[in-house]
């Protein structure tokens, strides 16, 4: 395409992404499924199309998306649910790859075990984007959100590492389990080390992170740096990106300033929005290319390969979740169960506030249906070299799995969650936040006591007393809110007239200030630069206001 055509195509893609998001907000349907349908619709129409370039996707798209997801994840929550996360993101991915590999090599003529395992590795990792978007909107409990998020972060690294080993075997003399296992562990451990190195290198750049623009530029470069470092030494680049993101996200509050965090969060939300929209559009547009490659295969061969791939993908996940619930606790393999006793900062042992309980039937059902596949599966399978036998058939199998899970499971996930009655306990979440707010305000009051005990002049006394009154009013409001939450007998956040009134009055006064500033600007008494500075101050003040929770 010429430059003008490329620009028009990009503008059209952005317009479609915005339109599909608007439709998703209005209808409750997952934007990922809508964008895929839009991509398929465009693909069958006459006109220029875009073919998926696996190297570009794996290098410039997947690392930023995984890094952003890691920044938003909780390292502590993932560690608390480590048994379940590892079971789903490592063991289940490995089992899926092996079962599909053996099935393809046994039942599809001319297919090798290495090629079959490569296909299995490509389709094994669920893409959590669609499931998380729907799950959060449907009010899925935080525990399941954490499991889906943690699984989605680590399963890509597992799958792509297996894929690399399988491709190497397909190009070589065959598949050797001892050799493949050794290479897998080397790549995984190396990826973890590379991620830790990058995370601590970023920590040492703390002076640069004091400037919001420099901090933001550094954040955008971090996933690419982690990926390049790991790949240059032939270890898992995807795992390096995830580990770096988890560590940096965990330390963000200590090693970056508020202004930097606000700007970085806003930029990553935009990056996620555009990249996720682009990749789901690309999924749909690959339909003609994949279908055209099938002319040399019989219908029976295609049906057998697709049946094995889709069947294992859809059936193994719920079977795995059910079986792992039935294992005895003594084996330490059962998903869920009481969390281990942890040590606090002073070395004393304590029991976690929310011990991890075994997954119940409704949670198993929801997790089973949260296995939507995405662009990583297609990008991974498209990296197969041309020397791999039945390469075109493997492309089609992966594409069918993505469509079946993304459209079938993605469109029905929200109704399933509502039917199961799985909803987060809003009262408990609100109580936890208000307890933390109260503790933070009390810490501020204690710090004022320390300052007041030191030598200071009358001006400081006035400032301290003014701040003390503000904090005491806020603390009293939070305590009244907690009293109301403690008396609540349902999982819905109760209404508090005083709390709602306080928030309404503060928002009304901020809006009045904003309108007055606009009048000053329109009257020529305030220039636009001054307006933006003052308006940004009000925006930050409004952003700090809590919601009903």
Automatic annotation (TrEMBL):
Domain Cation/H+ exchanger transmembrane: start-end pairs: 15-419
Membrane topology term: Multi-pass membrane protein
Main location, first listed in the record: membrane
Intracellular or extracellular location(s): Cell membrane
The entry's keywords: Antiport, Cell membrane, Ion transport, Membrane, Sodium, Sodium transport, Transmembrane, Transmembrane helix, Transport
Residue stretches spanning the membrane: 6-24, 29-45, 85-107, 113-134, 184-204, 224-249, 300-323, 364-381, 393-417
Signal sequence bounds: none
Protein purpose: Na(+)/H(+) antiporter that extrudes sodium in exchange for external protons.
Identification of the protein by name: Na+/H+ antiporter
Native species: Paractinoplanes aksuensis
């Amino acid at each position: 395409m010429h430059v003008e055509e490329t620009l028009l195509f990009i503008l059209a893609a952005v317009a479609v992404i915005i339109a599909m998001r608007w439709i998703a907000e209005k209808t409750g349907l997952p934007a990922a499924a809508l964008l895929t349908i839009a991509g398929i619709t465009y693909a069958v129409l006459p006109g220029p199309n875009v073919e998926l370039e696996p190297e570009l996707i794996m290098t410039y798209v997947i690392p930023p998306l995984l890094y952003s997801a890691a920044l938003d994840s909780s390292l502590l929550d993932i560690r608390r649910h480590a048994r379940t996360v590892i079971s789903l993101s490592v063991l289940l991915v490995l089992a899926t790859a092996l079962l599909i590999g053996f099935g393809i090599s046994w039942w599809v003529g001319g297919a090798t075990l290495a090629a079959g395992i490569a296909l299995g590795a490509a389709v094994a990792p669920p893409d959590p984007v669609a499931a998380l978007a729907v799950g959060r909107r449907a009010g899925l409990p935080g525990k399941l959100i954490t499991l889906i998020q943690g699984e989605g972060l680590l399963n890509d690294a597992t799958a792509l590492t297996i894929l690399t080993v399988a491709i190497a075997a397909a190009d070589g003399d065959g598949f050797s389990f001892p050799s493949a296992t050794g290479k897998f562990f080397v790549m995984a451990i190396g990826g973890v080390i590379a991620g830790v190195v990058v995370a601590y290198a970023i920590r040492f750049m703390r002076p640069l992170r004091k400037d919001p623009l420099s901090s933001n530029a550094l954040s955008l470069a971090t996933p690419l740096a982690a990926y390049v470092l790991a790949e240059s030494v032939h270890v898992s680049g995807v795992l390096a990106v995830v580990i770096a993101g988890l560590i940096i996200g965990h330390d963000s509050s200590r090693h970056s300033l508020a202004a930097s965090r606000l700007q970085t969060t806003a930029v990553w939300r935009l990056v996620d929005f555009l990249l996720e929209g682009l990749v789901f559009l690309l999924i749909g547009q690959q339909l003609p290319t994949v279908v055209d490659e099938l002319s040399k295969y019989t219908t029976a061969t295609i049906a057998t390969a697709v049946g094995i791939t889709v069947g294992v993908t859809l059936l193994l996940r719920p079977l795995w979740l059910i079986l792992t619930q039935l294992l005895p606790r003594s084996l330490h393999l059962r998903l869920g169960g009481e969390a281990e006793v942890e040590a606090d900062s002073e070395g004393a042992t304590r029991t976690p506030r929310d011990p991890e309980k075994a997954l119940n039937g409704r949670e198993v059902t929801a997790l089973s249906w949260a296995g939507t596949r995405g662009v990583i599966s297609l990008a991974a399978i498209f990296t197969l070299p041309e020397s791999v036998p039945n390469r075109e058939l493997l492309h089609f199998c992966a594409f069918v799995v993505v469509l079946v899970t993304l459209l079938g499971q993605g469109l029905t996930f929200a109704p399933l969650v509502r039917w199961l009655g799985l909803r987060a306990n809003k009262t408990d979440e609100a109580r936890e936040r208000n307890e933390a707010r109260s503790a933070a305000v009390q810490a501020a009051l204690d710090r004022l006591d320390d300052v007041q005990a030191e030598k200071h002049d009358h001006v400081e006394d006035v400032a301290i007393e003014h701040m003390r009154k503000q904090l005491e009013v806020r603390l009293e409001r939070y305590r009244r809110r907690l009293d109301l939450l403690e008396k609540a007998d349902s999982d819905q956040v109760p209404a508090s007239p005083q709390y709602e009134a306080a928030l309404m009055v503060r928002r009304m006064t901020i809006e009045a200030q904003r309108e007055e500033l606009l009048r000053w600007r329109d009257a020529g008494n305030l220039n636009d630069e001054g307006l933006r500075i003052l308006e940004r101050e009000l925006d930050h003040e409004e952003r700090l206001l809590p919601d009903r929770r």
